[in-house]
Design goal:
Number of strands: 7
CATH topology of the largest domain: Beta Polymerase, domain 2
Helix content: 55-70%
Structural class: alpha+beta
Distance between the termini: 44 Å
Order of helices and strands: HHHHEHEHEEEHEEHHHHHHHH
CATH class of the largest domain: Alpha Beta
Number of domains: 2
Mean pLDDT: 84
Radius of gyration: 21 Å
Strand order of the largest sheet: 1-2-5-4-3
Low-confidence stretches: 311-337, 347-354
């Protein structure tokens, strides 16, 4: 590890768990800030800055911290508006990642936010797209096999008809979880989230997804804070171990949790992940350092990490998932929605999101 990477980990441990950390007197705080930006953890790290980070370097940190906070406030306000609109329209939905991950943090506002991802029942997908279009949400990009994108007030939204990624099919659990959604309130920001089991699956699947495109500390910390909130030995043994095994995620679950304990400060070691493969933990950690969020640093070596974690995931791509992608997605996003998409694009030609 470089000194900047070591210092950043110390800041994260101190910020999230109030651990006692020491910082080298010759720390290059500009280099640490660059690393924090590449890993998308500026808000978390900035909370724990020591007094030795002073002068111009501290001003740069504070400016970056303020910018993230401003973006986060914009995100929460946009999510509030989305919640009101869909609730008033009688459309059930759940937030994926984002606020549904931040709710496990000591300070939810320190988690960096990106798009607002949300999932609706398949039968509500087309209607939801129409409601968004009628209320000022502009098409953001062409429909994909998983979602369609919108933007409004400089915030991007992704309306999902399914969340599962390539070789991982967790759709049954997620769609059944929508009807059991939990109402979450953080400082008067209200939103709907999946029950704990299903929400944990999303965070773990998100980590797995980014192993293909570039995994960063933000995805890891999301998983770590969920583990801290829910995965005691008892809960693991009664419920989660079978759930992880059923979806082929057991090896990733155990490896990621032990890695968090070893490097990121997860403050206890449960027996359910104590026997994780140490070499695989180290390899996963090294990949995170090499990659950065969305592969901002490098994507080299990811194939080895994926193949190593995939031993218990062979066969996950099911006929059902292929049918979901091959028929439902094409029919819904490329026929039904495409008409609305083209119409709105024509009407909005020359305009930008307000």
């Amino acid at each position: 590890m470089t000194q900047a990477e070591q210092v950043l980990l110390s800041l994260i441990r101190k910020s999230l768990f109030d651990s006692k950390e020491s910082f080298p007197s010759d720390t290059d705080w500009d280099a640490v800030l660059r690393e924090a930006k590449q890993q998308t953890v500026v808000g978390i790290a900035a909370k724990a800055l020591p007094d030795s980070c002073a002068g111009e370097a501290r001003e740069k940190w504070k400016a970056a911290e303020f910018q993230q906070l401003a973006n986060t406030i914009l995100y929460w306000k946009a999510q509030d508006e989305l919640h009101r609109l869909l609730t008033e329209s009688g459309i059930p939905f759940v937030i994926l990642k984002g606020a549904a991950a931040a709710m496990y943090y000591p300070d939810p506002y320190r988690r960096a936010m990106g798009d607002i991802d949300f999932l609706v029942p398949p039968e509500q997908f087309d209607r939801t797209a129409t409601v968004l279009l009628e209320n000022g949400y502009l098409p953001d990009h062409e429909p994909t096999d998983r979602h369609i994108g919108f933007s409004k007030n400089k915030v991007s939204f992704e309306l999902h008809h399914h969340f599962s990624y390539l070789d991982l099919d967790i759709e049954d659990a997620l769609l059944s979880g929508i009807s059991l959604a939990e109402r979450i309130s953080i400082d008067n920001h209200v939103f709907s989230a999946l029950p704990a089991n299903e929400n944990g699956l999303v965070l773990l699947a998100h980590l797995w997804e980014h192993l293909h495109s570039g995994v960063g500390m933000r995805q890891v910390i999301d998983w770590m804070m969920f583990v801290l909130a829910h995965l005691s030995n008892e809960y693991w043994n009664i419920i989660v171990s079978k759930l992880a095994r059923d979806y082929g995620l057991e090896k990733l679950t155990i490896t990621a949790a032990q890695m968090c304990h070893k490097y990121f400060g997860l403050p206890y070691s449960c027996s359910w992940f104590a026997d994780a493969d140490e070499m695989l933990c180290d390899d996963l950690f090294s990949q995170i350092l090499r990659s950065g969020n969305f592969g901002r640093k490098s994507t080299w070596g990811m194939s080895f990490t994926i193949s190593s974690l995939k031993n218990s995931m062979s066969g996950i791509a099911s006929t059902k998932q292929e049918e979901l992608i091959g028929s439902f997605t094409r029919k819904l996003t490329r026929q039904s929605f495409q008409k609305n998409y083209s119409t709105v694009c024509n009407c909005c030609e020359g305009k930008t999101a307000a």
